[in-house]
Amino acid sequence: MTPNITASTASDKAEFYQDLELQIQGVVDGQRNWITNLANASALIYHGLRAVTNKPINWAGFYVLDQTTESLATDSTTGQRKDALILGPFQGKVACTNIAFGRGVCGTAAAEKRTLLVKDVHEFPGHIACDSASNSEIVVPLVLNERVIGVLDLDCEVTEGFDEVDQAGLEVVAKILVEACDWRGVV
Ligand code: SME
């Protein structure tokens, strides 16, 4: 099915996020495959936000729960399984592929089950620099039945690239996507 989605003509960010919600509802309509929906959501977020904010956003995409990477998903001292993330659909440059819960901004947001709005990544202990051009970041967990099943991650080349408007908008997007997809292979 080819979705009929028009580009956002929003003039400010709050309006953009209202349009984005509708656009995402549009692309997921009749489609529950998580890879497909996260791929289209990445494109809508990345291109839409760059156009409306003029901020140099350089990455937008997803990491999802990884069921396969034993080395990261096993605690070296206790031998117990730990959750880990693996790179999912995104827009932007090549990114690191595996992130353990508790590591970096993504793994910390996943472990703490809360959005992390990082105004300057150089001040975040353990930040994982996939692209040295990134200076700020926002990570929103995807939560299904109380469990973190992935994260939505955005990077920006300037400090303070994201604010509370982005946080509110992206948290709604994350909820829509969690409900809109079948998570076969992830959970
Ligand atoms: N900076 C992230 C890693 C992922 S990339 O930004 C795409 C982190 O610290 O978890």
From TrEMBL:
GO molecular function ontology, one term from the record: L-methionine-(R)-S-oxide reductase activity
InterPro entries assigned: FRMsr_CS (IPR000614), GAF (IPR003018), GAF-like_dom_sf (IPR029016), Phosphatase_reg/MetRdx (IPR051330)
Superkingdom of origin: Eukaryota
Positions of the GAF domain: 61-175
GO cellular component terms, A-Z: cytosol
Family per record: Belongs to the free Met sulfoxide reductase family.
Name this polypeptide is given: L-methionine (R)-S-oxide reductase
Species annotation: Entomortierella parvispora
